[in-house]
Here is the input.
Amino acid sequence: MPRLNSVTALHRLRAARVARLATVDPAGHPHLVPVTFALSPDDRLLVIGVDQKPKTTTALRRLRNIAAQPRVSILADEYDEDWSRLWWVRADGDATVRTDAAGRAAPITWLRAKYAQYHDDPPLGPVIAVELDALTGWASTDPGD
Here is the structure.
C-alpha cells in the first residue's frame, strides 16, 4: 500500500472535482463539509468559494470555525468497487476568510477556470484561502510514478 509521492499527490488533488473540508470549533468539535476548490498556479494556496447553492444559513459554521481555529484539512479521494483503484490525498494548512474584492479576485478566477458552473455564476460569498504546508497521500497500488 504505497504512499503517493508529492508530485502524484498534487496532480491528483488538482484534478479532483470535490473534496471535504475539515474544521474544528472552539470546543474542539470537528465539522466536515464537501466543497469545490481550486489550487493557485504555484500550488501553494487552495481556495474554496462560498457560492449561491442553497444553504440553511449564510452564517456558515466553517467560516466561524476558521475565525476561531485556522488550522484545517482538505481530503480528496477516489472510491471504486475495484479496490485496486482507491486513493486519497490530504492537504493541511492555515485558512483565512477573504471578503474583500482584491483578496477574492484571483481565487474566483481559479475557481471559474476549473468549474464550468462558475463561468456565468461565480461565487459571490467569502473565499476560504488555505496556505498549504503539508500534503500526504495514499494509493492501494503503486501509481507507477
